[in-house]
Design goal:
single chain, 211 residues, alpha+beta, two-stranded antiparallel sheet, 24% strand
């Protein structure tokens, strides 16, 4: 009985710490200022930093050259209103999610980041980060609603269920959209080894109007 009570106290303490962390994170996100950010530069810098770290996966980066131009062009169209620290935290949580829940002991573990855009005739639209991973597919009962719920964990290596909630909170802070796609069930992609894709869209801004 004494051991049971001790375990129960530790469990309750863990729950309280998790709730406290979420409340602190919510307040921290709310207080962060948003400024014009070149999303292309931020994602490319993130990729260059991560690819030089010894990880249990390799990381690749590509982008829509029809919109962003070649690597030698200035990428003037790639601006959103955002917060650099929050966006890097978003990418880190997506990577951690793949590392913990999708990847196994496989030398072919891979994350692919693709930067795309959707615009209309007036130049308005959104910039989209397409963040994909190989490994194990999503469970059959997985839903976006569950993923972004506080305390939800899935797959092996379950943590405190904080990552998906935090990802969604950061996307909301940036007035963005979040979607999760099971790549194994998409038509026309039967030959791909990708398992899961997260699509995050942010409203594109005209940098000339923001300065």
């Amino acid at each position: 009985l004494e051991e049971y009570l001790s375990d129960s106290k530790m469990y309750i303490s863990s729950i309280l710490e998790t709730v406290k962390s979420k409340l602190n994170a919510s307040k921290d996100i709310e207080l962060k200022a948003l400024t014009p950010i070149n999303l292309f530069d931020l994602v490319e810098s993130y990729y260059l930093r991560k690819k030089n770290i010894n990880l249990n996966y390799r990381i690749e980066f590509d982008f829509d050259e029809g919109f962003f131009g070649t690597k030698n062009d200035p990428k003037d169209m790639a601006f959103i209103k955002g917060n650099e620290r929050l966006l890097i935290s978003l990418l880190d949580n997506l990577a951690d999610n793949a590392s913990k829940h999708a990847f196994e002991n496989d030398s072919d573990n891979r994350i692919e980041i693709y930067l795309s855009a959707y615009t209309d005739d007036l130049g308005e639209g959104e910039l989209v980060i397409i963040f994909s991973n190989t490994g194990k597919p999503l469970s059959v009962d997985f839903t976006l609603e569950k993923f972004i719920r506080k305390g939800y964990s899935h797959g092996t290596g379950q943590g405190e269920g904080f990552g998906g909630w935090l990802i969604n909170e950061i996307v909301r802070k940036h007035s963005g959209k979040l979607d999760v796609i099971d790549e194994t069930g998409r038509e026309g992609l039967a030959n791909t080894d990708l398992a899961t894709t997260f699509e995050i869209g942010f409203p594109k801004i005209d940098i000339d109007e923001e300065i």
